[in-house]
Every structure is written in C-alpha cells, then in structure tokens.
Design a protein that fits this description.
heterodimer, A: about 525 residues, alpha+beta, D-Maltodextrin-Binding Protein, domain 2, Dipeptide-binding Protein, domain 3, 2 domains, six-stranded mixed sheet, 19 strands, disordered N terminus, B: about 350 residues, mainly alpha, about 0% strand
Chain lengths: ~525, ~350
Amino acid sequence: MKHFFNRRASGTRGIAIGVGVLLIAASASATNGAAAANGILKVATSAAVTTWDPVQSFSTEAFYMTSLYEPLIWKNEVGAATEYSPALATTWSHSKDGLTWSFDLRAGATFHDGSAVNAAAVKASLDSAKKDGGASFIWDPVKSIEVVDANTVAFHLSYSAPLDLIVSSSYGAWIVNPKALDAVAKDSKYYESGIDAGSGPYTLTSYAPGSEVVMSAYPKYWGPKPAYSIVDALITSDGVTAQQMLTSGQVDFASNIPLTSMASLKLNHKFAVKAYGSPFNYVGYFNTLRAPLNNPVVRQALSMAIPYSDIVKVGGQGYATQARGPVPAGIFPYDSATPQYKKALATAKTMLAKAGVKNLKLKITYASENGAEARFAPLIKSAFESIGVSVDIQAMLFSQQWSLAKKDPANAQDLFIVYYWPTYSDAGSDNLYSLFHSSAKPFFNLSYWKNTQYDDLIDKAATLTGTDRAASQALYSQAMKILYDQAPGISFYDTKAVYVVPKAITGFTYNINYPFSLFFAKWSPTK
Amino acid sequence: MLKFVGKRLVSALFVLFGATIITFILSRVIPSDPALAFYGPKATLDQSARLRKEMGLDQSIVIQYFKYLKDMLTGNWGYSISTKQPVLHELMTKVPSTLEMIFVSIIFATLFGILLGIWAAKNAHKLVDGSVRVFSIAAVSLPTFWLGLLFQLFFVGRLHWFPATGEFDTELKFLNPIKHVTGFPIFDALITGNFHAVENGLWHMVLPALTLSLYSLGLISRMIRANLLEVLSQDYIRVARAYGIKERVVLFTLALRNALPPVTTVVGLSAAYLLTGTFFVEDVFNWPGIGKFATTALLNVDYPAIMGITLLGAMGYLTINLIVDIVQAKLDPRVRSE
C-alpha cells in the first residue's frame, strides 16, 4: 500500500498481477485436451436423473440407461440394413397368430457383478416392469412370461401385438440383475445413491445429483471394448453454457446446444451440425368441453388461422417440418397422405361468423421452460387476434400447466400446447391413443375429446400391429383423418434432432427409437 | 451486551418461524404435480397418487405443517423430489462450494471496492472519479446472469483464458483427487498439499467469483468514496493538512479509519445478497453449490428442497445480520441503548 499512489509502482504491480493470472490460466489450460489421451470422454448434457431404478425410469435418465443396461433386442436407426439388432437375445421368432414369442439369450453375457444373464433374470425384470414400471402399460398385451430353459424365454400374449417393438422400448424393457430387483423390493431407496444393475458396456462409477454422472467401461462386457474407458457427463441445464464448454474445449461433446446457435456453429471447422428425424412434435389441445370449442367448425376455423410456416421457422429455427397429425414423420403409423391445415385467415373468419362466434376469448397455456414454445406461442396469439379472437397467453412450468389442466377440465385452459414423443416406436399405441383416445379420467388426453368411432379404430389397429402391419396402418390412417376433420387439437410441427458433432469423434449415430440416448460405446477418437 | 444479543436472538427465532410458515404455505398453494418432477413428464396417475400419499400431500395443510416442523427440528428436512436425496444431506454437501465462492467474492469486492473508492475520492470530480462512478453504477445495475454469460463469451470464448464452467477440471478427480477433510474442496486441497488442485480450483473460481462480486464491489466503492469525501472535508483533516502531515498519513490513518465503519454493514448485507446471487451465477457457471441446487428445485417445484434452501438462507441472513448488529453495537454504544 506504501506506493499505491505512485503511478510507476502501480503500473508495475498491475503488470505483475496480470502476468500472474495469465500464468495460472496458461498452466491450468494445459490440462485441457488431456481427456482424450486418458480415454476419458467429457460430455455436457441437460439430462437430469429422476431415478436410477431401470424399472421405474421414464424420463431423461434414458440418456445414461442405454450405456448401463441392455434390452433383449435393439431397434435400429433409420436406414440401417435390418430393423432390429440382437442385444441380450440373439435370435427370436413368433407364432403365426402372433400370440407366442420366443427369444434365445446370448451365452456369456453377465451383469456388472459378474452373475450370468439368464432366462430367469429376463422374466424377473420384465414381470417387474409390467407390475411396477413407469412404462408398465407397454406390457399390457403380455399375459405371461415363461422360462423355457436357462437360455430361452417365451412370451404369451393375450392379443397380438408387436412384441419386437415393445422389448426394444427405451423405457421399461431393460434386463436387470435379479439381486437388485430383490433389494429394491425391500428398500425403495436402494438405487438412489447411484447404483446400476445392468449388463451394458458401461457401469455407473459415481453420481453427484444434479451435477455429474461418471460411467466406466465394464471389463467383462460381451461385446467390443469401448474406446473411451470413462464417460464423464456434466449435467448442464443451460444450453449456452454447454456451448461455451464445447467450443472452449472443456468438454468433448455437448448434447443440449440451443437451435439458435446452430448457424454460428456451422461456420466452425471443428464441428459438423447434423440434423436427424426425431420422434418429438408439438401438439395443441383444444378444450372440447367448453363452448364454442365443443363445435368442430370453430376448432377447424382456429386451425386455419395458425401461421404454420412461421411457427416452423421461429419455433424449429428451420429444423422442423409441419406435422401431419400427432404421429411424427419416421415413426409408425405416420402417413404422408394425412391432410394438413393451411393458413387461410379469410376462410377462418367466415367459418367463425357462420358458427355464430362473437367476442371469443381464449386462454392458451404453454410450458415456460420450453424455449421453442416460448418462441412460437406469441405467433398463435397474434394469428387468433387477426381473426377477432382475443387471447390470454400464460407461460407456466409444465408441472403447473399439467396440474391446472387436470384439476377442473371444464374451466381449464382453451388451448394447451405440449411437446410430445412416443414411449416406444409405435405412435399408434402411444400418441394416437394417449393424446386423443377417450378415458374416464383425463391423463394425456387434455382436449377431453370423446369419439367412439375414433376409439374403435385405434383399439382395433393396435391388435393388428404385430401380425398385419398394413391393415393396422390403414385403420390408423382412417383415425388420423377423423382427427383432421374433427380437429380436437392442432398438430404444429415435427422437430429434428440436431447435434453438433465434433470432428474429433468418430462413430456418432442418432437413433430415433432412443431419442434421449447416445451410444457412447460406439464412439472413438478420430485417428 | 448479553441482553442485547439475547433480544436479537429471540427476534431472529420469530423471523425464522415466520419464514417457515410463509414458505410452507406458498409452496403448497402453487398448483403443481410433484410426480412430474419425481417420475418425469410421463408420470402415470398411479405414480402421482402414490407419491402424494408418500409425501403426505393428501393430508390437511395444518397437519402437513406441524409434521414438517417436527421433522425439521429432529433433523429430517425431507427428501428432494428432483435428486431423491435427503435435503439436509444435499445442503450440507453443496454449501461448502458455495461458501468458498462467496468468501473469495467478498474478499475481491471488499479489497477492490475500497481501493476504487479511495482512488475516486482522491481524484474527486476528475476523469478517474467519473470512470469509477460509471463502473460502479454498471456493476450494481447489470444483471448477474447476463454478466456471467458476457464473461464466458469474452474470457472463455474469445481469449480462452479461463474454463467455461465447473469447480475443477474433469480430469482432476481421476488424476489428482482431493482428499475429503472438511468438505470445503479448495481448502481441503490446500491442507492436504494438493497444490495442483488448489491452482486448478482458483483458476475455475476467477470468473464466477468476479461475476458474483461486482454488485458488492460497486456498492462498496461508492460508499467509500462518499464517506471519504465527507471525512476529508472535516475540520480535523484540514488541521492535519495545515500541520503539514503527509497526505498518505492523512488519507489512510486519519480519514479512512473514520470512513470505514459504515462499510461493515454494507459488507455484511452484501454477503447475504451474495447467497441469493449464487442462484444465477452457479447456474451459468455450472457450479455444484447451493445456488444451482436452488434453481433446479425451483424449476421442478421441489417443495422439500425449496423449503430447506429457504430455511438455510434465512438462517444465513439472520446470522450475518446478528453479527453486523453485534459489531455495530461494539463500535457504537448508542446502537445498544436503542
């Protein structure tokens, strides 16, 4: 402090401090980039873990589950030579009527504690998934599971269903060590500190809730040894921060970079921006319990007021296409012949007048945490206002939007915007059923719409998917035409899955059937 | 003095009790389905009903409150819906990282705030003073999360001087793991001789601590400047200067000593502000502390975690206020008699 006001001394001190900071920065930054050499793959992701219980799992932890666990078979990505790949089952077949399915298990596959994966473990896992699973409904067609011998398991179905699709589901189809199933039956908090009980290429090494997940390669894995011996996932909710981490070299990969950043990242020679078809889409439910929205003509008129191409541009930032009904493109039973609404403001206005609608006021709700909804919801408001419909638009957390919609449906919102995806790659039994099939108590059908003709078509189509896919598709297409005509909801757009893939990494693939997951075991450093 | 402290403690307990009632009611009034945070957005009706029963949400709000109060006093602060861990355990493991950041931020804010304030006062009404004033106003008024992103863009994205996020390099835990002694990571690294971790931790600390400290730094520098100018205009300073006492002695020994005491209040209140400031800073810098835990809890309407964080925050705020009161009472007997 003695010479603080001495200009010369002050300058020297400033330079010294600056050099010190730079030296620390330079020496520490030298540790960057050491990861790949050590076989450590560092990933930034927004994927939080709601549970480590593979039976209960029904959310974003799927990001890790595909590395820790295996199903009987995998459903391959679009464009693959075969529809399915063997996982813990090597061969499988079904009876002509589709009511009995048999799976032969892989010899030599072990759980991470070294115990063998056998038919008893498969039965215990899938019985548990059917009884207690988060996605237990996918097992509805399965009457019983039989252990034929140590390496063969048979499924007996009460009605024909596409069991190959079900056993390859991204939720509720993992094969789990029976010891863990016993443990969790005694202590429901068994998994919570971060334990895995799978047979996948990686095993869970450490877990810091909300912060970090570390997975290490399982040395006795039956398949090829992963090139990265450690995957360190840093849970980073903010997309811009994840982007900074990637571009500064702090992580090797980031899975949650905002769409709005893609244009600038395309110019960066270190990365390739890749877009894939995804199972995600945006849907809006009209509240069909309330007048005048209980009139299909009013719903059609409002559907014609929507500026679809603007919403695709603003919401999807160019990485989207207008939806054809609630089934996303690339997922069964998508039908490219399903009609779409087009923006026609004059027609919409005339239809509203003919229906006797005057001074209509609508309340729209959307999830505030969803950036795309926040971007495109105002476009709906201004479009409706241009045909004389005033709008109160409310952003709230999804959990609140969800609660309000169920509390008192008749007095709830008029339009509920939702981001949706199928539990497994059958949007007939999920999207078409969950979103619009009638139910005594509303679950995901938040248009509260009831149509017996639609229900019959969906119910019948579901029983044909396993044995006669074409007949099933035809029924689902009819059902989607009813949705177009009756307009209980608006199908906004199908999104693309967009990833920034570093050129330093080889083997990146996106599988539409496991939309939350990345298959790290197939990745390697580019030579 | 004991009576004074006792009175303050009793009123602090009342404030704490009031805080529990307000946060409890607010968290229960918000319409939200905790099952969505617990099981994910596709939680089934069965899962939702089961969870509500397990959490006691099917009981009356009065019963829920007294059960909460009883559990809280016995150290059971409930389970976080989003992390599935005991709330108290979560808080205890995350608090050290936050306190380390707050500690560095306070030192940074106090040291540079005082120096800037002195510099501005010494050059009052000149270009330097104007520049410091602009800087201080900007530091106080710019939103923390925006500043954090700006620093990331400039110091990380452009200059590559500092890491974008995190408390340490990812590799550190594999190559130079820190031995757990007190739970304060950089301090533990220091006392166990893991100097690579200390250096790495400090390197990671620079941007978040700088972001967090700017608000307090601006306040402190403005206050020091104003107090110092007031003191410097007093008669005893004029007399000292007339006696030919060196300017350095006048400024640092005679004037600064009298300009500093009011700053203790600002530093104390700033420390409390920093606790809530970490909500944004930790989210932007992915810092594994209480702030990041709080934002996750808020976004998931994680009742037990929100209650725990609020209670801990209130305790921290009251403790700091109590310390400030005691220090002030010690320095100024009139405060005690009030």
